[in-house]
Amino acid sequence: MASTHSPRRRAHTRHTAQTQIQVLGCSGGIGGPHLRTTALLVDHDVLIDAGTGVGDLSLGELSLIDHIFLTHCHLDHVVSIPLMVDSVGSMRTRPLTVHALPATIEVLKQHLFNWSIWPDFTQIPSPTNPYLIFEPLEIGDEITLNQRTFTVLPAVHTVPACGYAVRNTTSALVFSGDTGPNPALWPILNQMPDLRYLLIETAFCNREKALATLSQHLCPQLLAQELAQLTQPVRVFISHLKPGEVELTMEEVLHDAQAWAPQMLQNGMIFTL
Ligand SMILES: [Zn+2]
Ligand SMILES: [Zn+2]
C-alpha cells in the first residue's frame, strides 16, 4: 500500500523481511519545496537514481547508503552523487557502489568525476580504498542485496538507459526510468506474477507529443498505448511530470489510460513489499 506515513518504520525492515521504497523525488524538474528530481530510497541503504530529492536526507541517513542503482546518466538522475560522496565519504568505512550500464559509467567518469566538474572519488582518498566504486551491469542482470533483488529492465531513451524491478519474497515494484515506447518491457512484466506496483514516467502532456517522441519520453497517449500491452493487474503511478504541466498531464493520463486509474507519484510516498 502506498502511503505518506513517516519513514520511521523502516527501522524494523530487517526483522519483518519487508522492503520499503520511499519516494525522495519524482518530478521532471525543480521549483519549490515539493519538486525534487528522481530518487527512490529502498530501505535505508539503497538508492535508485540520485536526483535532487537525495538532498533532503540527513547526513546520518546519507552515510547509510551503500548502493546506488542508476537508470541513466542524465543530470536530473545523478546530480546528488558527487555531493553526497563528498559529504559522507569520510564517515564511511567502505566505498559507495554505483551500479550502472557501462555507457552510463563512462559518461560519469568522463564528464562528471573528471577533476574539472568534480574530483574523481574512485581515487580518493586512495585508489585502493576509495569513497566510490562503479559496478557495471547489463539488461537482465539480477543483483541480490540482503534478500532484495534488483532486476535490470530495458528502457528506450536518448542515452543508454534501464529500469529496475525491486522484489523480495512477497512482491515486486517496477520503476520504468526515463523511457519512450518500450516494447521489450511489457512481455517481461507480463511474466511477473508478483508485480504489485508500476512507477512509470509521463514527462510531457499530449500537446508536446512531438517533443516527447524526440526526447524519448512518454506523453499520456503514448502511456496508454504502452499500458495496453500489460496483462497483469497492477497499481500504476506516474512520475517525471514536467513542472507547470502537472495538472494537465494528469488529467490527460486519467482520460487516456482510465482503465488503469493511474495515480500521481508524490514525494514521501512509501511502498511496502
Ligand atoms: Zn533522461
Ligand atoms: Zn529524467
TrEMBL record:
SMART domains, per database record: Lactamase_B (SM00849)
Signal peptide annotation: none
Protein name (database record): 3',5'-cyclic-nucleotide phosphodiesterase
Start and end residues of each Metallo-beta-lactamase domain: 36-222
Protein's organism: Parvibium lacunae
Listed GO biological process terms: cAMP catabolic process; negative regulation of glucose mediated signaling pathway
Classification via InterPro entries: Metallo-B-lactamas, Pdiesterase2, RibonucZ/Hydroxyglut_hydro
Gene3D superfamilies for this protein: Ribonuclease Z/Hydroxyacylglutathione hydrolase-like
MF GO annotations: 3',5'-cyclic-AMP phosphodiesterase activity; 3',5'-cyclic-GMP phosphodiesterase activity
